[in-house]
Amino acid sequence: AVNTLKPWWPGLFDGDTPRLLACGIRDVLLEDVAQRNIPLSHKKLRRALKAITRSESYLCAMKAGACRYDTEGYVTEHISQEEEVYAAERLDKIRRQNRIKAELQAVLDEQ
């Protein structure tokens, strides 16, 4: 996902680490793709954004007061308390799902 987006929008990253993205960034990126004729399909862009924003490291970084960034790397807003709570709940859900998958795989491996 980083390799898909970073060449076109390096401001979205701190090195190879994705920054917290501004709300509505997908529409901004889609418009930019059209204006600059960037060879990225809507599907590929959407998948890259999902991979980043649903990752454990991204969700862990969503703490109240943390900055959200635009395509140029400028701060646009800050994470709210509600967004932090949402991210924590989402992270718990992902970890629960991963634990269940691991337990199921262990059972299958025993057979």
From TrEMBL:
Pfam families reported for this sequence: ProQ (PF04352)
InterPro entries according to UniProt: ProQ/FinO, ProQ/FinO_sf
CDD domains named among the record's database cross-references: FinO_conjug_rep
Keywords: RNA-binding
Entry annotated with the keyword RNA-binding: yes
GO molecular function (one): RNA binding
Protein name: Fertility inhibition protein FinO
Organism: Escherichia coli
